[in-house]
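Work Package 3 committed the consortium to producing structural models of liganded targets before the mid-term review. Because experimental data for this complex are still outstanding, the team generated a predictive model from sequence and the ligand definition alone, so that downstream docking and mutagenesis planning could proceed in parallel. The input record is reproduced below exactly as it was submitted to the modelling pipeline, together with the SMILES string for N-acetylmannosamine-6-phosphate.
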Amino acid sequence: MIQTMKNKIIVSCQAWPGTPFYGDPRLMRAMAESALMGGAGGIRANGADDIREIKTTVDLPVIGINKLPDKRGVRIITPDFESARVLAEAGADLIAVDATVQSREDEAELQQLIQDIQIRLRLPVMADISNVEEAVRAERLGANVVATTMAGYTSYTKEHKTEGPDFELISRIVEQVNIPVIGEGRFALPSDVCEAIKVRGAHSVVIGTSITAPWEITARFARAI
Ligand SMILES: CC(=O)N[C@H](C=O)[C@@H](O)[C@H](O)[C@H](O)COP(=O)(O)O
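The resulting structure, written out as tokens with the ligand in place, is given here.
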């Protein structure tokens, strides 16, 4: 399944409170259908309700996430086994988890979560990381793929946050790990996708805001004048 996404784009279809797409999973299904029509090779979606709805009409691999508070009360990507289990039940084909040191300092706990998803749910795990060290750690702890999702969003990477995708980080991770590396975060242009996959060696690329957040796309144009 991970192989089927090679050299493809994955569209992140997520609805947040305060945006017009929040509250009706059929809206994210329409987004995912649009992504399929446009040639996407996968979908990334948040929460069991959206995933269940997307799966009714969209025959693409779905990377499931569940952004929920962890035991500290901080919202992170798929904090625990239960939050992963409901995604599997809804039809997710791969589960993404926050694998940053900021959110999961405890290595044994992260390793246990990865193993539980792989063995009990029989699904592969995507590790969302923010730097090279976290990518190397995630591979060592058994993750099946690694994604640059959190680059620029942890306290220790926010100062180096790139305006567009962090291509340099993708290259460095590709050199250091053997599992597929997925570029994610701030992809805005078709040429960004080419750079990540053809030049930097990414397996595929996840695009969210620049496809599924029309208010942000509108603002980019509006700001131009
Ligand atoms: C940091 C974090 O929580 N990222 C989230 C992860 O699922 C989403 O809010 C992003 O939209 C997604 O990663 C895609 O990135 P972009 O929207 O930049 O194309």
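Reviewers should note the following from the model. The first strand starts at residue 9 and ends at 13. These observations will guide the Year 2 experiments.
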